[in-house]
Amino acid sequence: MRDLEKAFWGKITASVTHEIKNTYAIIQESSGLLSDLLTLQPEGSLIHKEKFQRVLDTINNQVNRGVILATRLNQFAHSMDEPWTEVKMADLLELAVSLLQRLVRRREIELKAATPEADLSIRSNPFRLLLILDSVIERLPEVLKPGGQIVLQSSPAPEGLAILLEVQGPKQAGWEGFLEQFFPSLKDFLEAVGAELAISSPPTPEGVILTIKTSGE
Amino acid sequence: MAKIRVLVVDDEVEFVSALAERLNLRGFETQTATSGEEALAIVKTYPPDVVLLDVLMPGMSGMEVLKRIKTKHPQIQVILLTGRGSWDGIQGIREGAYDCLMKPIKIEELVQIMMEAVASNQQAVKGGG
Question: Which residues of A touch B (CB under 8 A)?
């Protein structure tokens, strides 16, 4: 996607997600008002009072869920605002997990971000970093059996920083061979978008750590 | 003890009416406005203790309303409500807002922040007197 097209898509998506959050705010205040009024009803004066409250709680929980989704989509849209900007890695990895989790969960694999040891930031292209993470994470379920985990973590590296993808859990048979086939094609793609991918530790039965090295602008 | 006066400003009519009613149930005296211009007119004739102000409104923006309120009525506490993100909060607090909350808001959190805002104003008045 060219920069102008990305900026257009980002602007419209950010604007619409803002309106979606406004809609959720109205639903939440309206259901909150109903809940308040329900609380004021004397005991025994309203049949199905508990059922009403349960339904209102469900509405509230789903509003909260929707707000999180809309917020993440809004952040993704804003990742297209500036081609190069200061990227907080903890925020980026949290966003990546939130956006990509559903895709790997279908294969019964969990994606999560490890708690960062320090606040790491780099001047980079957040949209491009998310694209790289998606490209790698999309292929990893092919080597992992259901029940496995992919853990994302950022760490300082000599030239910029590294994003570690730790692949934990039982692997598919022949997974080492698969990685050997899979890395070169991905490596070309990563180089084309300005990053490197390397196996930073040899594959073992315990797992593998992939390193995406990015040196910024 | 006099009720705390709250002005709720947002271009979404359903939002202001539901939120105002919830605040009424919690003992606040509320007024509503659905534009910046209407809000400034109310502030002039019936100054509230706290203004809950949406940032992104058609016509006069919440930031512009905030600046005008703080210029003429610095004692009024303004709490911004935004659906956009932290930048509104940073800019708003620079312009004199007491706090900035992300929409949808949690009513108990809002009430607590409003009480803190009013208390800090009362302390400032005592300190100044």
Answer: 18, 21-22, 24-30, 32-33, 36-37, 40, 63, 67, 74, 78
Q: Which residues pair with A74 in a beta bridge?
A: none
Q: Coil, helix or strand for A101?
A: helix
pLDDT, tens only, B8-42 = 999 999 999 999 999 999 999 999 999 999 999 99
| Mean per-residue pLDDT of chain A | 81
State how many domains chain A has. 2
CA B50 – CA B31 distance, rounded (Å): 11
Residue A77 burial (C-beta neighbours within 10 Å; 0-12, 13-18, 19+): buried
**DSSP-derived pairing of the beta strands A85-88 and A121-124:** antiparallel
pTM flag (> 0.95):
no
Same domain for A108 and A133: yes
- Rounded CA gap, A169 and A148, in Å? 4
- With vertex at residue A128, the alpha carbon angle to CA A122 and CA A130, rounded to the nearest 5 degrees, is 85
Q: What is the least distance, in Å, from the CA of A191 to any CA of chain B?
A: 33
Alpha-carbon gap, residue A40 to A34, rounded angstroms: 10
Smallest CA–CA distance, residue B112 to chain A, in Å, is 17
Domains annotated on chain B, with CATH:
5-128 (3.40.50.2300)
Q: Which two tokens stand for residue A132?
A: 């790289």
Report the alpha-carbon distance of residue A154 to residue A165 in Å, rounded: 9
Residues A47 and A153 in one domain: no
Type of residue numbered A58: T
Per DSSP, which regions of chain A are E strands?
85-88, 110-113, 121-124, 149-157, 160-168, 196-199, 207-214
pLDDT at A191 over 70: no
Which residue in B10, B14, B20, B22 sits closest to B54, CA to CA?
B10
Under a CB-based contact definition with an 8 Å cutoff, are residues A154 and A163 in contact? yes
Q: Are residues A54 and A9 in the same domain?
A: yes
Boundaries of domain holding A40? 3-78
